[in-house]
Amino acid sequence: MTGLSIDNLSMRFDLPDGGHVQALQDVSLDLKAGELLSVLGPSGCGKTTLLNIVAGFLAPTGGVMTLNGHQITGPDAERGMVFQQGALFEWMSVRENVGFGPSMKGMPKNDKAEIVDHLLDVVGLQDFKEKAVYELSGGMQQRVALARCLANDPDVILMDEPLGALDALTREKMQSLVLKLWKETGKTIILITHSVEEALLLGERLIVMAPRPGRIHKEYRLPFAELGVNADLREVKKHEDFGPKREEILNMIWDMEEEIMGTKEDAA
Amino acid sequence: MIPLLMYILIFVAAFFIVTKVVRGAGISDYTSLKTVTFGDESAVRPNRAAGIISILTIFLMWGVFTGSTLLPGFLHAPGPFKGDTTFTYTAQADGATDDATVSIVVFPREEPTEAPEVDPGDGFAKNDSVAIAQWRSGLVRVDGNDDIKKSEGAQVIAINGQRIAPGETVSVENGTVTLSDKGTPNFAPTRGWQMEPLYLPAPEEVFTRTLQIASEGFRNFTLLEHLGFSLFRVVLGFLLGALVGIPLGYAMGLSDWFRGWFDPIVEFMRPVPPLALIPLVIIWAGIGEAGKIILLFLAALWIMAIAARSGVSGVKISKVHAAYSLGASKWQIMRHVIVPNSLPEIFTGARVAMGVCWGTVVAAELVAAEQGAGMMIMTASKFQNTDIVIMGIILIGVIGFGIDMLMRWAERILVPWKGKG
Fold first, then answer.
1. How close does chain B come to A12, measured CA to CA in Å?
2. Cβ neighbours of residue B1 closer than 8 Å, sequence gap 6 or more
3. ipTM computed for the complex
4. Among the CATH numbers 3.40.50.300, 3.40.50.1820, 3.40.50.2300, 3.30.300.180, which is that of A1-78+157-162+172-268?
5. Distance to chain A for B341, nearest Cα, Å
6. Helices (H), B88-193
7. Is residue B419 part of a domain?
8. Which residues of chain B have pLDDT under 70?
């Protein structure tokens, strides 16, 4: 079978004082190839832990994950990751960063150069090819990170708040870019975000996670990503279902946050 | 006290002249409002004019208080008295008193002069003469030629008509007279405000001595050889230290066993000043080249090990994760992520280590060496060649500064990504 399958995943962290934290409990999820899933939830609900387990950086304490039929046991080039920021190699130029994956595989120079050139065209950074990454703006750096991930042609792309550190305008442009890349490449994408709007706009499917223990609280199927592929994202936001959905999810997350804080204050 | 006041005066005067007069009303853009810059060191840029005036002031003060020939005479601080002067003393013996004159010639130390012949005069106290070197003082045995000697009951009771008792001091023209405990006048010519060349030679003397040492050498080695030996020791000791320290630091950053094994050693040795190791190294390896190289190796080793260790531990986990998810193997991550990521830290360590090594080599040479910058100034000081000592200090400072500049330059060229991660 193709796609990513997560079955009864659990993660328990032991604390130095003898206690433990149940970061994830019985998380099950099936993702077909080419699906774009966005994950929302209050802080501490285990979103990033889930992503790190899927990436193979953490070994779960329970459950099984398979990708295209084989079990996931550690990090691999088939699952690329895009981080919030600071994961580019500042000692390499933009070109070298994007070509890092192919270089590690020992791909011939010409093939690599072709891939790098193509991806830099796609993300619009052809003119910055030989620049050092620290000379670029935050938005450009994230374009490099996206291109670097795509250069390896992974089956699944894991995004850990990739646009979280960007300003609103850049963020909107980058959201369009993510949708465009998703449609063009047909990759399976899991996107973690703090922004309800971003989760609605980009997620074909959306799961809201709840904390203590970290679990899937509710799942949605959304039409907005498909709409956004061809339309201006600001138009998509005017869709009649967009506002109500946003309010519903926001309220859900607010309730969870208040539960964590222990007090339920009046909204007024 | 006077030099300090003069220095403060120049500081204040230069400040007002440069900022108010030369630049008109001073800076008037928004930064002029920035009077408090706590936590924002970069907001204060060094004033270039202040820097130049500061250096000139040091040389000016040096010249003023050493009577340098580079400065016109009117700028000199009052010098020590030179020439002829006199004072009179009153001797008392057997109830009678008599006055006599002492003629003194004060001569520069490098031109020894004989005491002049004087007419003995009348009375039982006879006139005396004496020659005293500048900066020095001299006992005037006034009773030596008198008719009634001290041993026969004569005593000096006044200088220039002022009553004086043993232990007291009287000011006279061009100097002071102190009556010793045994009743003999001691004349000290006026010293002025200038430094004695023994303590601080004039700048031009240091300069000519530098040229002389550069052409004639010092203690069987030329100046360049002395400095070259010191530099050679530093470079070799540092390279050996880096060669062992960097792999050790990497091992400590990557393996918990290495970390546990070497942490106590490194953490103990790091705060031990290398200077404290000099005696032990001399016992072990003697005062030859080997001992110095071992000392500098030890000075650089711990610094480089700690720099490499923190460079490795300081790698952001997201960079390692990113490399893993891009398909890199452990070895590839080491080579393409860990090593380049640690280079800035290693360069910082290298800069510190070079500075420490330079200080340590000079100290080691002060203690015992056949050649080297430290040996040069130590030997010179034993012979009171203050000009060579000052020359050595200046050269050591210049070389130390040069090493630091060179390391900074190398850092800019080789690890331009420093601090940009």
1. 21
2. none
3. 0.88
4. 3.40.50.300
5. 8
6. none
7. no
8. 23-43, 421
